[in-house]
């Protein structure tokens, strides 16, 4: 124990000396190069970022791991006309670790691909790009980017975009746990208080095998700053499992192409799916954001994944009654003396089998082995609270949480329910559930818009015992 606690101040000193920094998506004030005419009919902004980070992870029954990641990031954004806007960024990373790195064979089921340079070094890269053209009343959109829906501040259960958090079960060098972007095209109508958005995207499960996602959403802005959202997703693809390995008859050796009927606006996917053979993975979601009281927000997301009826949420006798929810409350901009405080508490519950599908990988709610919804995955729950205090260039965040994750059948994205498997479900079976509490803090300093430092420490209690200390930072050019 003495060695463990002695390592903490040593690591913090190392963090300061090495100048490790935090990922900043790019401060608009830090545009190193900007081109525009006097009327601002066009504008192109170019900036860069150097990022370095170090982490030490010490969990019981595992050796202490040291990880260092360095990356170069470039950003390009702006508009060519007042109606044509674009945004892109690229990140090239080099990781060093004191543990062995496995080979990656560039198959999406292994996660984001990387190049193994040595036993303890790898390189990898990510990019995003998007473009939008505003017509009246429709906006056309296309890109290779993240899709994010819902008001949740920590755990989206609908579409999480690029949100990702460290989970102790991710302490591995065999996979990059960052979510991956996806190519898409779409459009958006905005008429008065109503906004309708629709996307068609390609997601990835197996090389040279098609897998597709369609998503549409209706936002209604009500009086008193209340926003109601209604959305659907449809996922389908070619069978990825070897013939005869999936016990479900409707899943074996099926090939799928892009379904153009889903691109038609305003038609519920649940109706389209029936006309096309009742063969796709359809989900329905609702979300609500209430900001009636100034500086307060009450929010929630509810995902129904292949449910029979609303009342079946409370019926555990059928495994297919799959649902997930996040509810939260937040208070922003609380003035406490010279400090500005933000606070939130959020609860997430994900039932067994959510995001999975009996037809296998071609139909799961996954992209590059990561859930498009919450990274907690099926059969899990989390209660999380945090408070941030800002004073000039300094920001401090305190956090606490309790996480439970069932690792049994029905708790993993790749699990396939067969006709001979039990038809009931059990939420968080004590025999197979890992539970832990976490307490943590981060300190972030931004002395100039071109420089940022952040350091953090999180202590874990329960089935995962130990700590994780990090330092990150950036120089914006």
Features:
single chain, 477 residues, mainly beta, Porin, 18-stranded antiparallel barrel, two-stranded antiparallel sheet, 2 helices, 24 strands, 5% helix, 50% strand, globular, disordered N terminus
Topology readout:
Elements: H1 2-18, E1 33-36, E2 43-59, E3 65-79, E4 84-97, E5 115-118, E6 121-134, E7 138-145, E8 148-149, E9 159-160, E10 182-191, E11 194-202, E12 211-222, E13 226-237, H2 269-275, E14 281-290, E15 296-305, E16 322-336, E17 339-350, E18 366-367, E19 370-371, E20 380-391, E21 394-406, E22 433-448, E23 451-462, E24 466-476
Antiparallel strand pairs: 1-2, 2-3, 2-24, 3-4, 4-6, 5-6, 6-7, 7-10, 8-9, 10-11, 11-12, 12-13, 13-14, 14-15, 15-16, 16-17, 17-20, 18-19, 20-21, 21-22, 22-23, 23-24
Report the major sheet. Answer: 18 strands, antiparallel, barrel
How many individual helices?
2
Strand content: over 45%
Order of helices and strands: HEEEEEEEEEEEEEHEEEEEEEEEEE
Give the total of domains: 1
The CATH class label is: Mainly Beta
CATH homology superfamily name: Porin
**CATH-scheme architecture:** Beta Barrel
CATH topology: Porin
Describe the protein.
This protein has about 475 residues and is mainly beta. The chain is about 5% helix and about 50% strand. β16 and β17 (about 340-350) form a beta hairpin. It starts with a helix and ends with a strand.
In brief:
The protein has helices spanning 2-18, 269-275; strands at residues 33-36, 43-59, 65-79, 84-97, 115-118, 121-134, 138-145, 148-149, 159-160, 182-191, 194-202, 211-222, 226-237, 281-290, 296-305, 322-336, 339-350, 366-367, 370-371, 380-391, 394-406, 433-448, 451-462, 466-476. It is mainly β.
